[in-house]
């Protein structure tokens, strides 16, 4: 029998602390030695006796207890895995800054074990740029972020920020431990842990289709492919197997993807249908032409032959997203984008709600586009809604950051 592993469960001060009892219990039942390190604030939400009874060990809180045994580093050094659940916005900020002003901070800094955090906070705090940046920092250090999900929060409000369920946290933590080989590896200072999207098959379309008119001209759009590429890049770095169906791209695709180059909407449809057949997640970030010329000339259209005006007859392209959504395998999650020029935020949201109803996908990323917005820029500002039209999350920043937030939201939730 393999020796029991030591799992440090860090509990910080949020209402979801009561659910941490379930996390502790699951590890104990799994046969692990659990050391609970709770902040003072955590103990306002859940009692020390409960945690001691469930963990079968004393609960550690005080930085200045056990000084002779150098407890502030000993707990971290003994850990095979550290799980912080719930991780409040404040504790996430402290982690990102590397602060060690309490026992939990010292424990984490003194450890080289994989670190898993389960954020829990109100939606506004989760969507705050400070939290977004802190989470990105932690991810870049190899910290595994589980959740949060969307649902009922403290009080009557509903939104993103609800702590993942204990079984989800424990499953992610055990996977991290497994990946690190049960031996403390320098996981959150290097990258030895199992990334959170490992095992997922994700298909992403990116770029803009080009509909030929003649051998030298096409009808196209200004998509650079940056947002789709950022999604592919984020998904690859988080361990997913990624197929990138690429219409015209203005920047190189990331390494590690299976690249399927396409030109027209019809080609994109064929490629997406083939790739999506066994995908867990499909994201349609490409800007797909709604119409194509009825006929493509074999030779260059000459102005001498056309006169002062030229009329080109167009025919509607199939809506790829509608088709994929209608014919999807069970369990597959599909995310569409909505590129709209509407400037009023409420009207933009309403356009998105109408669009997701027509398209039949699970989520829709609404981004305003214009001469200097959305298309070809390095940043984006999006609202993600679900099928009921509810806002799941908002994200604003680099396209990479937006990509991570989209993945966070759509991967941790079952389809709406
Ligand atoms: O590539 P970048 O320069 O980084 O710019 C990013 C972006 C603005 C292109 C991207 O974020 C974006 O919004 N992509 C979707 C563009 C678009 O076609 O939006 P739409 O509102 O017209 O279409 C809605 C959805 O239906 C999209 O997911 C689109 O891929 C899909 N669609 C549209 C038409 C069609 N015939 N078939 C489709 O599947």
What does this structure look like?
The strands form five sheets. The chain has an eight-stranded mixed beta sheet, sandwiched between helices. A five-stranded parallel beta sheet has the order 2-1-3-4-5, sandwiched between helices. A two-stranded antiparallel ribbon has the order 6-7. Helix content is 33%, strand content 24%. Helix 1 packs across helix 8 (166-179), helix 3 packs across helix 5 and helix 9 (226-237) packs across helix 14 (399-411). The protein has 14 helices and 19 strands. The chain is of the alpha/beta class. The longest helix is centred in the C-terminal third of the chain and has 15 residues, at 345-359. It has helices at residues 17-29, 48-55, 71-78, 89-97, 103-109, 123-126, 129-140, 166-179, 226-237, 265-276, 303-306, 320-326, 345-359, 399-411; strands at 6-11, 33-38, 81-87, 115-119, 144-145, 149-152, 158-162, 201-206, 211-214, 217-219, 241-246, 258-261, 281-284, 291-293, 314-316, 333-340, 363-368, 379-386, 391-398. The protein folds into two domains: 6-180, Rossmann fold (3-Layer(aba) Sandwich); 201-412, CoaB-like (Rossmann fold, 3-Layer(aba) Sandwich), CATH 3.40.50. Residues 182-194 have low confidence and may be disordered. Helix 13 (345-359) links the parallel strand 16 and strand 17. The radius of gyration is 25 Å and the shape is elongated. The two termini are 42 Å apart. The structure holds ligand PMT. The site of ligand PMT has 28 residues, from helix 9, helix 12 and strand 16.
